[in-house]
Amino acid sequence: MRSFKDNERSLARLGFTQDVDVCRVKANAGALTNFEVLNLINSKGASKDTTRVIAAIARSEYKVCDYLNETVASTQTLESVTTFSDKCKDFKLAKAEILNIINIRPSVDFKALLDPIIEEPKERGIDTDGILELVQDLLPPLPVVETQMEKDQDETNNGEES
Amino acid sequence: MFCLSELEDTVRVPPSDLNLPLEVAIKKALQKLFLDKVLSIGLCVSIYGIKSIEGGFVLPGDGAATYKVVFRIVVFRPFVGEVIAAKFKESDSNGLRLTLGFFEDVYVPAPLIPTPNRCEPDPYNRNQMRWVWKYGDDEFIIDDSCQIKFRVENISYPPVPTERAEDAKPFAPMVVTGTIDDDGLGPVSWWEACAPISDAED
């Protein structure tokens, strides 16, 4: 009773074929910012569980969580990100560029960081200084390294106590 | 870096999970099937949610229930032109290798490192080579002291190899090629120190 599809799928699991025979309804149902992914994993319980064993989250998801916590996504909130992308519409930026800016958070002292993100700003008449000011206002930067190290120390202390 | 993909698949829930609520059991089966695996759309990171479940047939000779599920997953698929912060992993004469923690196959080949540069044997690590960028009178070393920002140039999905040498690197089903040859890219410390110079360049 095994169909052709079942056979192909088991071959894929053994590593012989690359494509699992999955029907794709929509390959791209929407881009996500780093913040939204971090929010998703945290809402599943990653942030509350310091032992990382109790919550129903896979180890690979924890690795993603670790990576995202070191980027500015860890300091953003839903309101700041939505307000920022709404205001960006006035600046004639492409959606991919807005996504890039939210993920990277170029700071005003780091003007060079905006160059690889926005293509041909002068030809398109884009106000890069205005964008940097908006970033400064709405998107918080990463906390200073010392604070992060203190946070790590607190976490290990909690782990030992529990 | 991430996007949502909607997929439809036939999921087999093993008999041991049939006492769990249906959604939980199906999510468990989906996670086992998709998480941390590379499909043609990218690396599957997380199950976002289930849209619809149909079926629940038990095929003859099998104790498990089979459902047809439409669900959404979060895939890691950077787009060309995206700037991503990564950590240095290793380097050799062909170029650099960067890692994102959950994804370790980001390569910056030698032509995409800013010129003029040179490659020298690493004094701290006998097996590795170190890349150094010479800009004016200063020399900038590429190492693991800070995050490295790169821009995605290309994503490729090499086919599964049929034969491999014994000591070859583990097969990478998804390879991201990046460049650090532009303003603002490369180790973060390069630009923190040189902010006034880069303004003068423009």
TrEMBL record, chain A:
Entry annotated with the keyword Mitochondrion: no
Statement: the UniProt record of this protein carries the keyword Transferase: no
GO MF annotations, alphabetized: nucleotide binding
SMART domains linked: RPOL4c
Gene Ontology cellular component list: RNA polymerase III complex
Gene3D superfamilies: 1.20.1250.40
Chief site of localization: nucleus
Intracellular or extracellular location(s): Nucleus
GO BP terms in the entry: transcription initiation at RNA polymerase III promoter
Domain RNA polymerase Rpb4/RPC9 core stretches: 24-145
Similarity comment text for this entry: Belongs to the eukaryotic RPC9 RNA polymerase subunit family.
Protein name per Swiss-Prot or TrEMBL: DNA-directed RNA polymerase III subunit RPC9
From TrEMBL, chain B:
InterPro entries: NA-bd_OB-fold (IPR012340), RNA_pol_III_Rbc25 (IPR013238), RNA_pol_Rpb7-like_N_sf (IPR036898), Rpb7-like (IPR045113), Rpb7-like_N (IPR005576)
Domain RNA polymerase III subunit Rpc25, residue spans: 82-191
Keyword Zinc-finger: no
Gene3D superfamilies with a match to the protein in the record: Nucleic acid-binding proteins, RNA polymerase Rpb7-like, N-terminal domain
Keyword Transcription applies: yes
Domain RNA polymerase Rpb7-like N-terminal stretches: 8-63
Keywords: DNA-directed RNA polymerase, Nucleus, Transcription
A Gene Ontology term for the protein's cellular component: RNA polymerase III complex
Pfam families assigned: RNA_pol_Rbc25, SHS2_Rpb7-N
GO-annotated biological processes: RNA splicing; transcription initiation at RNA polymerase III promoter
Major localization listed first in the record, in broad terms: nucleus
UniProt subcellular location: Nucleus
The protein's role, per its UniProt record: DNA-dependent RNA polymerase which catalyzes the transcription of DNA into RNA using the four ribonucleoside triphosphates as substrates.
Protein name: DNA-directed RNA polymerase subunit
Taxonomic source organism: Brassica oleracea var. oleracea
Lineage of origin: Eukaryota, Viridiplantae, Streptophyta, Embryophyta, Tracheophyta
